[in-house]
Amino acid sequence: MVRKKSMKGDYCPSARALDVIGDWWSLLIVREAFDGVTRFSAFQKNLGIARNILSERLRKLTGERIMESVPDPNGGAHQEYRLTAKGRDLLPVIVSLRQWGEKHLFAPGETHSRLVDSVSGEDVAALDVRSQDGRMLSADDVVIVKVREDDL
């Protein structure tokens, strides 16, 4: 099995983020947590994920403080997994992936789940990238300023 290189010391925020949450299962677990899933058995059932893989991903997500393991609020023997503030900050990431998928991976008129505002019932507006002064930005309008070794 090929082991991937850790990006923990990389100067790119995207590389570091992907090091923590960049695999298929981790993002799907976070998505399920946003949908209110808290129990190991429910994550396993909803995702069809093997127990050992789910255990390992939950261990990583709790170790990175994206999720936390808390005792059953009803006094049961099981633990519940809940998003932390750091985990809840992933909402725009999940929404952005979802909206990209809706735009590029479904045929026009093809049925798919919808993300709606829980108060109004309206579809969530498309995310966009804006400048500090509020202008809409496209990929042509942004550049990545890389860290040079001299800057360290």
UniProtKB/TrEMBL annotation:
Any GO MF annotation of the entry: DNA binding
Keyword check for Cell wall biogenesis/degradation: no
One Pfam family in the UniProt entry: HxlR
Keyword vocabulary terms for this entry: DNA-binding, Transcription, Transcription regulation
Domain HTH hxlR-type residues, every copy: 12-109
UniProt keyword Transcription present: yes
Name of this protein: Helix-turn-helix transcriptional regulator
Organism annotation: Brucella anthropi (Ochrobactrum anthropi)
